[in-house]
UniProtKB/TrEMBL annotation:
It comes from the Bacteria. Keywords: DNA-binding, Transcription, Transcription regulation. Pfam families: HTH_1, LysR_substrate. Belongs to the LysR transcriptional regulatory family. This is LysR family transcriptional regulator. It comes from Novosphingobium pituita. The keyword DNA-binding applies. Residues 1-59 form the HTH lysR-type domain. The keyword DNA-binding applies.
Length: 295
């Protein structure tokens, strides 16, 4: 247990970038914290932290060691939590992340039922259109819409979505409906960019090869959908993102290709935590809800 205490002390110093702040967080004296780190470095034979009179920074070896410490302690904490709580009712705080629009449409209703069913459980729902690092950012469950590479994380597929092209009825009445991908060269496209300026939810290279004209670029899917409904062009999205405007006939699907591969919707979490009461309850509710839904 002394080694575990030393590792937790190191993580606290690294996260606070201060011996004094880490000491306050751990309810220890700065001298105790400093001695613990010095003993850990002596035991490892490497310098984990670079100290000056004004700052404490991780060395290169310290960065690598911090990452492995976080992973290892997460496994250990999860084992204790599982052993203590397998039969317990969900309680505490469950942190979930999901894409913004999908989360609002499909995850928030599940979270609402979850909170009502378990009065001792609180939920932190982060709707973000970026890839979130579970361990580093304190996430219990991530909803991902993508083909996922093999990793140490546990994945549970709960549904699938398809990519679709759509445009407003007014735009199609004026410009005609494309029958093949190459026909997009005669149309105006709306492109959704991610935070780095790259394209999201669209095969930009194929469109560029077809000389499609991108009249408008936006950085959120909803802005692109609004522009398409206003008649500014054709947009490619995931099926759930335009389900409501398609049902209301504010958009119409074009270039429908039933052979286009579907993208899986998955729950992603650390493998040792999949049986904790809160995650188990959330997963069961998602499966039950998605069984009755089409995206």
């Amino acid at each position: 247990m002394d080694q575990l205490r030393a590792l937790r002390t190191f993580i606290a110093v690294a996260e606070q970038a201060s011996f004094a702040k880490a000491a306050r967080r751990l309810h220890q004296s700065p001298t105790t914290v400093s001695r613990t780190i010095a003993a850990l470095e002596a035991d490892l034979g490497i310098a984990l932290l670079s100290r000056t009179t004004r700052s404490v920074r991780l060395t290169g070896e310290g960065e690598s060691f911090l990452h492995r410490c976080r992973l290892g302690l997460a496994e250990i904490d999860g084992a204790f939590q599982n052993a203590r709580g397998l039969a317990a009712a969900p309680s505490g705080i469950l942190t979930i992340t999901a894409p913004v629009l999908f989360g609002r449409l499909h995850i928030l209703p599940v979270v609402t039922r979850l909170i009502r069913a378990y009065p001792d459980l609180d939920v932190r729902l982060l709707l973000l259109d970026r890839v979130v690092r579970l361990v580093e950012e304190g996430i219990d469950v991530a909803v991902r819409i993508a083909e996922l590479p093999d990793s140490a994380l546990h994945m549970r597929k709960v549904g699938e979505v398809r990519t679709v092209f759509s445009a407003s009825p007014a735009y199609l009445a004026q410009r005609g409906e494309p029958e093949r991908l190459d026909d997009l060269r005669h149309h105006e496209m709306i492109i959704v960019e991610d935070e780095t300026g790259g394209t999201r939810a669209i095969d930009h290279d194929r469109l560029r090869a077809g000389h499609a004209r991108c009249r408008l670029r936006v950085n959120t899917v909803q802005a692109g959908i609004d522009a398409a409904m206003a008649g500014l062009g054709i947009i490619r999205t995931l099926s759930y993102q335009v389900k409501e405007p398609l049902a209301a006939n504010r958009l119409r699907p074009v270039l429908v290709d039933p052979g286009t591969p579907a993208l899986p919707v998955s729950l992603l979490y650390q493998s040792h935590r999949k049986e904790t009461p809160a995650i188990r309850a959330f997963t069961q509710m998602v499966i039950a809800a998605f069984r009755q839904s089409s995206f």
